[in-house]
Design brief:
two-stranded antiparallel ribbon; 13 strands; globular; alpha/beta; 19% strand; eight-stranded parallel β-barrel
């Protein structure tokens, strides 16, 4: 029996030495069968996501482009909505709109943007989602919220996709509940309460916690749950004949016993056959059919997995 959600794969890349090299990476991702090229949205050593998305779309014919994910605090959602609608139009409908509430403390410190308490950031994010959707609706749009106020925005240009697929990533119950109600794609992530990637955040991405997070999503989504695409970002992707030894070596970084690393939702470890089996099992357990790897090395290493599973 065919699974209701077919596998597809994304790759998250963040930099290249120049334009031709970036274009070549985008074409390689497309040639290897990846559905989507994502960039992070941070202020460190990376390309700015939106112009890099434009360049990647221009270099390819079918590759989808997005950010994993835009931080709602860094740009007014009307501005982001107009930019993404423009790119969707110019790319022939290849944008995926990833959005989140923000978490990386160093970004806020470097930029001077206030890092408000989580409740305030998520309140503002929830309004931002409403603004994005309203701007893409195709009708004059007004909005009156605590954080954003719009009056009679025309919503042009019209995107090709109606609507642009919305990807919301998060790890807390509130964020995942918003995603379940509003998104087309739900990125199930660890919670990063400290503002820094650490062992506690890695542990929060474990299998039992992911079971719990999927229960939150299912409860909040109600009848629309079966329409959601579940996305898992992979922090490690290692092709090896020494599956157990590699898991043991990674156990400290994940804050988990080695045997739990092998079922960790955000890591692929083993031979190609073992990784294929693991991803099929995770789709059965969590409905996770959309996997995103990170970095050029992983893009090439996971290419045989992509070839085996995409579209199945």
């Amino acid at each position: 029996m065919a699974h209701p959600r077919r596998f597809r794969f994304g790759i998250q890349l963040h930099t290249a030495p120049d334009g031709p090299a970036w274009a070549a990476l985008a074409r390689k991702a497309e040639d290897l069968g990846y559905s989507t090229l994502f960039l992070p949205d941070h202020f460190g050593d990376q390309l700015a996501p939106l112009p890099a998305m434009v360049a990647a779309a221009d270099a390819t014919t079918e590759l989808r482009v997005g950010a994993l994910v835009f931080d709602n605090d860094y740009k007014h959602p009307l501005v982001l909505a107009k930019e993404l609608a423009t790119l969707d139009l110019l790319s022939g409908g290849r944008v995926e709109a990833g959005i989140g509430a923000g978490w990386m403390a160093s970004d806020y410190e470097q930029s001077g943007i206030p890092m408000d308490p989580p409740r305030v950031r998520v309140d503002r994010f929830e309004e931002g989602v409403a603004v994005l959707k309203g701007c893409w609706d195709g009708e004059p749009f007004s909005f009156e919220g605590e954080h954003y106020r719009l009056q009679g925005y025309a919503g042009t240009p019209r995107p090709v996709q109606r609507p642009i697929p919305l990807l919301i990533g998060g790890g807390s119950r509130r964020m995942l509940s918003i995603a379940a109600r509003e998104a087309d794609i739900v990125g199930v992530n660890p919670s990063i309460h400290s503002g820094h990637v650490d062992v506690d955040s890695a542990r929060d991405g474990g299998a039992s916690r992911t079971d719990e997070k999927l229960s939150w999503i299912r409860e909040a989504a109600g009848d629309r749950f079966d329409d959601l695409e579940i996305n898992l970002l992979q922090f490690a992707a290692v092709v090896t004949d020494d599956r157990e030894g590699t898991a043991a070596a990674l156990a400290g970084a994940f804050g988990l016993p080695a045997e739990e690393v092998l079922e960790y939702p955000h890591a692929c470890i083993g031979t190609i056959d073992q990784i294929v089996d693991d991803l099929q099992a995770r789709r059965e357990r969590w409905g996770a059919s959309y996997l995103v790897f990170q970095g050029e090395q992983a893009m090439e290493a996971m290419a045989p997995v992509v070839a085996r599973l995409r579209g199945t």
